[in-house]
Amino acid sequence: MDAGPRPNRALARRGLRIQRLDIDPYCGPIVSWIFTQRLARHSMARIARALNDAGIPCPSAADPGRNPHRNGQRWVLPTVRAILANPRYTGHQVWNRQRTDHDLIDAANTTLGHRDVMRWNTPADWIISAQPAHPALVSEADFIAAALVGRYCRVPPQRGDLADL
Questions:
Q1: Domain that holds residue 113
Q2: Domain Recombinase: where (predicted)?
Q3: What does the DSSP assignment read for 94-156?
Q4: pLDDT at 107
Q5: Neighbours of 72 (CB within 10 A)
Q6: In total, how many domains does the chain have?
Q7: Alpha-carbon distance 134 to 88, whole Å?
Q8: Residue 18 maps to a domain
Q9: CB 6 within 8 A of CB 12
Q10: DSSP 112
Q11: Can you tell me the mean pLDDT for 16-43?
Q12: Sign of the CA dihedral with 131 first, then 137, 140, and 141 last
C-alpha cells in the first residue's frame, strides 16, 4: 500500500515511494491465531500440527509465486518459529535482519572471486522503527511474551542424577 514519498531525496527523485504493509484478510487471522496458541503455552510443533490438521495452507502454498523455492506441502516447525520471531507483526518496520557477506570461493586462490551469502544478523543489530509503520497483528507485550514461552523450562535430569537419592 502506498504511504507517500520517500524522505530520502535521491530515492524520491527516482520515483520510489514508501510502501506500507496492510493486513492480509486470509493470512492475518492465522498469524494472530499462531501467537494466541503460543501464549497458551503450546509448542511450535503442536501449532504446526494443528494448522496441518485443519487443512490451512502453509505460506508457500498460499502464495506460490512468492515462494517458488519451497514445496508448499505442509506447515513445518521452522515456519512457525519464523512467524513467532518476526517483529514486523507488531506493526513496526524492521531493517537489517539480514546481511550479504562476500565469501571467497577459495581462500588460497583469490582470482576465483567470491560468492554472495545471505546471513542473519543478531536481533541486537536490527533496526526497528520507533513508531508503528503499519497495522499490528499482535501487541508488543504479546510478541515478547510469546518469545519467552518455553525459555525457562525445567532441565530434565541427566543420567545418574537419580542414583544420588
A1: 94-128
A2: 29-146
A3: EE-SEEEEEEES-TT-GGG-EEEEEEEPPGGG-EE-SS--S--SS-HHHHHHHHHTTTTPPPP
A4: 81
A5: 14
A6: 2
A7: 9
A8: no
A9: yes
A10: G
A11: 89
A12: positive
